[in-house]
Amino acid sequence: MTDNETLARSLYEAWNERNFDEMAEATAPDGSITIVGSGDTFEGPEGARRFGTMWADGFPDGMVTVDRLIASGDQVVVEYTGRGTHTGTLVTGMGDIPATGRSMTLQLCDVMEFQNGKVRSQRTYFDTGSMMAQLGLTAGQAASAQQ
Question: Which domain of life is it from (predicted)?
């Protein structure tokens, strides 16, 4: 495994352990995480910490499993599965989604770029429609729940 592969894999293990400090330390000062579907962007180490805690707050029992990791130079692609129960508020750029108590299994994919041993960029892809359906919400219900 390359150093970037090892570092990428360690970030998912850190999330499972709720070690948000490790995630922050692995992010470049000018690094960013972007949720592609919504355009939500998290900047720098503090942004990486917010990204991790956002999901952990919404899914306190959540865990991720790396299904496939492909690396080429400074680029790493990670396909993974997230599982958890939505027992906390999920805070998103589109508004808060109050706890539904429902379990969810979601397929996700991150495209990461590393520079000097740090995450320079991460683009996170997942099916928000599947997420909302599993939580028992439609887009309209999620919006009205925030008001």
Answer: Bacteria
pLDDT, mean over the chain: 92
Instruction: Give the pLDDT confidence of 73-120 residue by residue, as tens digits.
Output: 999 999 999 999 999 999 988 889 999 999 999 999 999 999 999 999
Dihedral sign from CA coordinates of 71, 23, 61, 129: negative
Instruction: Report DSSP state, residue 26.
Output: T
Residues across the chain: 147
Total domains in the fold of the chain? 1
Torsion of CA 41, 43, 48, 50, to 10 degrees: -70
Is residue 147 domain-resident?
A: no
What are the tens digits of pLDDT across the range 124-142? 999 989 999 999 997 554 4
* Residue 78 domain flag: yes
Q: Which CATH number belongs to the domain containing residue 112 in this structure? A: 3.10.450.50
